[in-house]
Amino acid sequence: MDRAPHPRPTRLRRSFARLTSAFAAIALGATGLVALGGTAAGAAAANLAQNPGFESGLSGWTCSAGSGATVASPVHGGSAALKATPAGTDNARCAQTVAVKPNSSYTLSAWVQGSYVYLGASGTGTTDVSAWTPSAPGWQQLSTGFTTGANTTSVTVYTHGWYGQPAYYADDISLAGPGGDPGDPVPGAPSGLRTGGATSSSIDLSWSPVTGATGYNVYRDGSKVQSVGGASATVTGLAASTSYQFQVTATNAAGESPRSSAVTGTTTAGGGGGGGAVPKHAVTGYWQNFNNGAAVQKLREVQDQYDIIAVAFADATGSPGGVDFTLDPAVGYGSEQQFKDDIKAKQAAGKSVVISIGGQNGTVSINDSASANNFANSVYALMREYGFNGVDIDLENGLNATYMTQALRSLSAKAGSGLVITMAPQTIDMQSTSGAYFQTALNIKDILTVVNMQYYNSGSMLGCDGKVYSQGSVDFLTALACIQLEGGLSPSQVGLGLPASTRGAGSGYVSPAIVNNALDCLARGTNCGSFKPARTYPGLRGAMTWSTNWDATAGNAWSNAVGPKVHGLP
Predict the structure, then answer these.
(1) b/e code 364-381 from CB counts within 10 Å (16+ = b)
(2) Using CB atoms within 10 A of its CB, is residue 195 exposed (0-12), middle (13-18) or buried (19+)?
(3) Residue 74 preceded by cis peptide, ω within 30
(4) In Å, how far are 72, 395, 435 from 503, measured between CA atoms?
(5) Are strands 468-469 and 461-462 parallel, antiparallel or unpaired?
(6) Cα–chain-centroid distance for residue 111?
(7) Which residues face 119 on adjacent strands?
(8) For residue 379, what are the CA distances in angstroms to 403, 406, 562?
């Protein structure tokens, strides 16, 4: 595709007014997700939730880490309510699994009190949903809805609080919609869980079959990462030389069992060379396939500190979801073959080279199965043509979690376990697990390499402690990273994205020393600002910058400082 002859504008600029409006929606309670008073739609339908008012104690509910209890005051209705208390890294999640019908619509609602209280449903077979409120000093109703997938026979409904917040209260929880057939009783917890073979990116698991189970869910470090039909699984997308804790549950139409006893498995050391072998701690840099005033580089000239090189950008085609790539003459290659040879040379040196989709000018819409298939097929075609190790998702025009998940899983099935998937969402996209970007990352957690959120061009945002932080400080980096780290992503899937120079972004540049302090704070608990996480994350993947070209323009100051810090993390 032809590229405009004029210099391409600085990446990732967008309307500050749009960001301010979106942030205000979050700060004021996620308008449209939180309903004050009134009756939830579909309230006339039967309530499928068991013990919805907690009149029978916690019967039917399971609360994480013993965080739940029933109280006689305050209550919204009846004589009891739930009180759940977050502690340390536990967010006081209380849940139950409910039998539902496929291809059916449901309304979920609850009355809550407290700060940062969430209500949600997972395992819907379509898009998992949640609603939340930052502050409910009195009883406030949360409401959301979903449609089940074609094969969905049960969903899990839950409430939870937030890290560092006081206890929250919930009462009169309702799931309205057609009831499913519970059939056999919920199966018991699996036993005999054990680890088997391991590679640098995968661990084999097996366990004893459970009578009455039709499937099993696999949990890694407390988060569900896989569903399988038999009593074994291979968990992929892991970091090299890293230990993980695993549990499994058994499922059938009646629901999900308690979790098994936990086992620990450790991946082997990463191999050298190409093939998508990403080191435990990695630096990502975007390489500009255009000239916008930054130093023009050939790929072979990209600084050696970069472990993942994202070629920016692919172009949208006339086919929905389809992408293509055209080498810009401004970069100075004599032929495409020279570019391909440079990719091979970088891979031989142990680097991964991925094609980035999006950027300021990249409008790629994936809103149905056809466009999801087009995306997977066209990205895979580029991987085969140029030798790319994978794909970077940097869409600024929004994405659909359901179909982007479908597209990336389809690409994974084509490309195999060596596929590298990176993402570069804006700060607004990762404020809540209910956001489409965050949900996509969680949906593909078993195949996701790293999310390098952009801590720039942002404005102020909420940290995981509920406080507002302004960009340009250690606290802004650490308190926002904490949301991802405690919201379900593995530390190995979290990186800090910063501009390489003041010219690389409209706002949010911080010196490499600030980046390094944030890395130390998250991985070691040192050099923190006023915010200090409740725990450390030594498995943190690393950092990203826009761009290798702006880094070169500034004398490689960013990569020379941040690169050794990342590679020296524990």
Answers:
(1) bbbeeeebbbbbbbbbbe
(2) middle
(3) yes
(4) 59, 21, 30
(5) antiparallel
(6) 28
(7) 131, 159
(8) 15, 14, 30
CA distance 193 to 208: 7
Mapped onto helix, strand or coil, the DSSP state of residue 235 is strand
Rounded to whole angstroms, how far apart are CA atoms 224 and 246?
10
Which of 256, 336, 385, 396 is labelled catalytic? 396
Give CA–CA dist 294/288, Å, rounded.
9
**pTM given for the model:** 0.58
Condensed to tens digits (0 to 9), the pLDDT of residues 74-123 reads: 999 888 999 999 987 678 999 998 989 999 999 999 999 999 999 999 98
What angle do the packed helices 436-443 and 401-415 form, to 10 degrees?
Answer: 30
Q: In Å, how far from its chain's centre is CA 354?
A: 19
Note the helical H segments in 487-534: 512-524
pLDDT in tens, 486-514: 998 999 999 999 999 999 999 999 999 99
The DSSP call for residue 426 is: B
One-letter amino acid identity for 547? S
**∠ Cα 537 168 147 (to 5°):** 85
* C-alpha distances out from residue 336 to 328, 329, 345, 350, Å: 10, 10, 14, 22
Contacts of 73 (CB under 8 A, 6+ apart): none
Task: Please give the single-letter amino acid code of residue 316.
Answer: A
Instruction: Determine how β-strand 94-99 pairs with β-strand 62-63.
Output: antiparallel
Q: Are 403 and 367 in contact (CB under 8 A)?
A: yes
350, 280 contact by CB (below 8 A): no
Q: What count of other Cβ atoms lies within 10 Å of the Cβ of residue 281?
A: 23
Distance CA 37, CA 46 (A): 20
> Has 396 been annotated as catalytic?
yes
Question: Do residues 284 and 306 touch, judged by C-beta distance below 8 A?
Answer: yes
- Please give the Cα distance from 263 to 536 (Å, whole number): 21
Q: Model confidence at 358, in pLDDT bands (50, 70, 90)?
A: confident
Q: How far is CA 566 from CA 187, 311, 425, 497, 553, in A?
A: 45, 21, 21, 13, 21
Any residues with CB less than 8 A from the CB of 63 and at least 6 apart, and which? 84, 92, 93, 94, 95
The β-bridge relationship of strands 282-288 and 542-546 is parallel
What is the C-alpha to C-alpha distance for residues 565 and 542, in angstroms, rounded to an integer?
9
130 forms bridges with which residues in the sheet?
120
Tell me which residue has tokens 């120079």: 501
pLDDT grade for 5, boundaries at 50, 70 and 90: very low
Residue 252's alpha-carbon distances to 94, 230, 295, 458, in angstroms, are 20, 12, 58, 44
Residue carrying the six token digits 């869980």: 193
